[in-house]
Amino acid sequence: MQTLRLASGLGLRAAHLPREARDTLFHIVVIAWTVLPHLLHLPAWCGVMAGAVLLWRARLAWTGAKLPSRWLVSGLLALATALTLWGERALLGKEAGVTMLVVLLTLKTLELRARRDALVVFFLGFFLVLTHFLYSQSLGTGLWMLVAVWGLLTALVLAHMPVGRPPLLAAGSVAAKAALLGVPLMALLFVLFPRIGPLWGLPQDAAGRTGLSGSLRMGGVAEIANDDSIALRVRFFGAVPRPDQLYFRGPVLSSFDGREWTRLVPTFPAALRPRADVELFGEPLRYEMTLEPSRLPLLPLLELTPDRPDAAPRVPGWMLTLRPDVQWQVDRPIGDRLRVTASAWLQHRHGPRQDVVGLRDLVQLPAGFNPRTLQWAADLRAQPDMLDADPRTLAGAVMRHIRQAGFVYTLEPGTYGRDAVDEFWFDRKLGFCEHFASAFVVVMRALDVPARIVTGYQGTDPLPQDGYWVVRQSNAHAWAEYWQPGEGWVRIDPTAAVAPERVQRGRSLQPPPGLVAGAMRSFSPEVAAQLRASWEAINNRWNQWVLNYSRQQQFNLLERLGVQSPSWQDLASTLIGLLCAASLAGAAWAWWDRRRQDPWQRLQLCVQARLRELGVDVQAHHAPRERAARLRALGPAFEAAAAELDALDRLRYAGQGARWQDHRGWWRRFRQTLAQSRRGSPAA
Predict the structure, then answer these.
(1) Residue 488, CB-side half-sphere exposure with 13 Å CA sphere
(2) What are the tens digits of pLDDT across the range 213-264?
């Protein structure tokens, strides 16, 4: 009850605040809304300073206290500058620039003394809205910034309403209408403005993202699998492959130092190294993939996507290369969302068919690590039926051991020590896919068989969303390849020996849900899954239709409009022509609109005409109270009509402001009262 009384008291106090204080508080709320998403990227001190300054300014507005001196504000600015230099080592660049912009915006609220100060804050706020898209261009960010823009426009409208105390809802309605008027021009520029790259195609810092890595430690893929965000979406033009066929090839890791797997640095000349030697069977599978930004210069394409003119991926502005380990590499880290169309052959062979010297790099093991595993491999090779066995037979024996020795597939295997493979192979037997792949490759190399680890993604969500199959970071996977004479590299997935559902159904272990997701799942798992699928489908359409809108789609649009072989010149001519037509339409509307009158001015002219009919000398600049005084001079019969003019004066200039609906009601009453006064006048 006491809380309700306190809230009621605050509400009454807010309702009776002066207009300046009310508008300032609204402006501060809008700024806080705009700054809030940046707190995920800004240093902690900047978020604390911004919050403290905004709360301080809100308290000053609430209590009507005096604003701080310029010296204090300058001191805070100098402190923020020093902290930015200390943290970012610069004042230029994305991180430092956004930090200083947030500081300047919040500190400027301490100088809101005149309308020009408010205008500076407005336009700093609009600029800050743009900077959010340097970090994220998701649909959620777009919706959040849409609300921020509406709030800033509402505050701007309030600043240009100097009379009375206009309601916030009325100012917000004007702001929304103004924004809607700009939608056609915005859509025109979006569709036809020349694109050099993807929308908001600015470099993005992908260092903080989870995802595939160029190296692998035991436990590394399990860390990625805890991230349930989307890694890519894929659409198939034809029959959808089985889940156990969906291997998206990422970094191939062949060098092992006892702790970490990395890419191989060959020790043999190029002529002696193993080559790709791709051989394809059956029909190709054409597919389209939308990749989320990552931190690696590679494309995790479907195995096997060859380097053929009718199948190889093409991304305008990017240089793509198929490495000898049949992994597609690009010339820079992927910082933007990419759409790739390619073809894959699910039945294939690759790698040298005959032994080459360079394969010896792929049997190397570091000295002094995992001695028990090496001894186990030596004992296996010493068995009579294994002395002359080929790699396929040896691989089958290793897989039988994995199936029969009691290994457990888990997302939380714990931390392993120096001889991690020994500990996994003999003692704990708990692991995720990278543990099984690492142990398998170490054993095969100890058997003198070339082998390597391949990382990437395996499987998809069980059901498509809007025609696209979703591959998440939790689908991150590690498998192995060994070399078989006469065939080349053979893919083998040791995880399938202990968790066949992981490969056959493409279902990865799920990380524990968060608080909100856990509550939703406990309440209704079906509703939680449906809400998630619906949101991701909407987000995918945003990605496909907005973020991935490219110059090729612009040219396709011109072709549908009848332009043969469209070019940049056609695109520019079409845009300029439509802009000229829009300008002429705007000029015509302005010419027509200038003949219209403001409702208040029209009312004033109507009142002036009625009073002049009575012989009252009134001018256009006379206020309603002046007209009332001149009307009273005609006699007592016109007192009621004069009182209505006094009411109009209060309606127009009183602190509560004026609404046009009130003006229309007043005009009806005034005409009736004036008619009655004329009938009761002795002159009449």
Answers:
(1) 16
(2) 778 877 666 566 567 778 888 999 988 998 889 999 999 999 998 888 999 8
**599 Cβ contact list (under 8 Å, min separation 6):** 660, 663
Return d(Cα 318, Cα 388) in angstroms, integer.
48
Residue 559 to residues 138, 263, 345, 553, 555, Cα–Cα distance (Å):
30, 46, 33, 10, 6
At which of 475, 504, 533 does a domain end?
A: 504
The residue written with tokens 């300046």 in the block is: 20
> Does residue 141 belong to any structural domain of this protein?
yes
- pLDDT band at residue 198, thresholds of 50, 70 and 90? very low
Tokens, residue 565:
């072989």
Q: Is the peptide bond before 304 cis (omega within 30 degrees of 0)?
A: yes
Residues 140-189 have pLDDT tens digits of 788 888 888 888 888 888 887 766 677 888 888 888 888 888 888 888 77
Confidence of residue 508 (pLDDT cuts 50, 70, 90): low
More confident residue, 294 or 512: 294
- List the structure tokens of 197: 């790259």
Q: Compute the average pLDDT of residues 467-478.
A: 87
Specify whether the CB–CB gap between 204 and 135 falls below 8 A.
Answer: yes
- Could you tell me if 463 and 552 lie in one domain? no
Does 570 share its domain with 639?
no
User: Does some domain include residue 360?
Assistant: yes
- Integer CA distances (angstroms), 626 to 599, 619, 623, 643, in order: 20, 10, 5, 12
In a domain, 61, yes or no: yes
pLDDT at 212 over 50: yes
Question: What's the structural domain count of the chain?
Answer: 4
Q: Going by C-beta distance under 8 Å and a sequence separation of 6 or more, which residues neighbour residue 334?
A: 206, 291, 293, 294, 296, 297, 298, 299
Q: Which of 504, 535, 565 is the last residue of a domain?
A: 504
Give the pLDDT score at 487.
Answer: 93
Would residue 513 count as lying in a domain? no
DSSP string, 353-397: SS--GGGGGGG---TTS-HHHHHHHHHHHHSGGGTT--HHHHHHH
159 with 256, same domain: the answer is: no
Which structural domain range is residue 273 located in? 215-504
Question: 163 with 304, same domain?
Answer: no
Six token digits for residue 326: 């049949």
Residue 139 exposure: Cα atoms within 13 Å on the Cβ side: 14
Burial 328-363 (b: 16+ CB within 10 A, else e): bebeebbbbbbbbebbbbbebbbbbeeebebbebbe
Read off the pTM: 0.61
Task: Tell me the C-alpha distance between 196 and 90, whole Å.
Answer: 29
With b for 16 or more beta-carbon neighbours within 10 A and e for fewer, the 84-94 pattern comes to beebbeeeeeb
Same domain, yes or no: 459 and 551: no
Q: Are residues 476 and 542 in the same domain?
A: no
DSSP per-residue letters across 407-459: -EE-S------TTHHHIIIIII-EE-HHHHHHHHHHHHHHTT--EEEEEEEE-
